[in-house]
Fold:
Amino acid sequence: MSPGPALLAALQQVIAMFIGCMTPALIFISAVQLDAATQNYLISMSLLTAGLGTFLQARRFGWIGSGLLSVNGTSFAYLDLLLRAGSEGGLALACGMALAAVPLQFVLAFFLPSLRRIFPPLVAGIVVLLIG
Structure:
């Protein structure tokens, strides 16, 4: 592939990554009605954490990361819960809830091989397709 089309394809991927990383934050911002400074902060942090997660995934530090270039971004899986928490207790409750879920995710990551019997690739693929 010549440099021109390769550059355009790369630009298309970067734009798609930006949109995918910012959309959950934008949905949360519009639902909770945050001020402009907090809106800018949330969008910046979603992009920063996506970059940090992608770096950790690609570099592979011991048992952290896969060594493959896969973009990590914000997830739509928790969006409904974050919207409910944000409407009930604001940004503090939403961030606290997300922070409380992190240790559970770390623990469950060690049991992924044994969970493959319960969730075969067909079921996991359908869930990934539906969540996005």
